[in-house]
Amino acid sequence: MSTTPPPASPDSPAARQVPCPTCGGPSLYSPQNPWRPFCSERCKQIDLGAWASEDFAVPTEAPPDDAPYGDPRLQN
């Protein structure tokens, strides 16, 4: 008696090595890496701390001193 094997599941994409954004070391970009794209929990926490202390910011022009902040209805 011959049985046919079940259809093969599609192969998952190969894991990639990417540079860690914090230290530049190799980091596995894969679901198996819980800290991706970082290489370790330490690098992830360093990055979080940098955001929390506002070391990173979106560049914007500062409004004039006499301009109201926040409400666009008050800016005209």
TrEMBL record:
Recorded name of the encoding gene: yacG
Any GO BP: regulation of DNA-templated transcription
Protein name: DNA gyrase inhibitor YacG
Signal peptide location: none
Assigned keywords, A-Z: Metal-binding, Zinc
Entry's family note: Belongs to the DNA gyrase inhibitor YacG family.
Cited function: Inhibits all the catalytic activities of DNA gyrase by preventing its interaction with DNA. Acts by binding directly to the C-terminal domain of GyrB, which probably disrupts DNA binding by the gyrase.
Subunit structure, as described in the record: Interacts with GyrB.
Lineage: Bacteria, Pseudomonadati, Pseudomonadota, Betaproteobacteria, Burkholderiales
Record flagged with keyword Methyltransferase: no
UniProt region (Disordered), positions on chain: 55-76
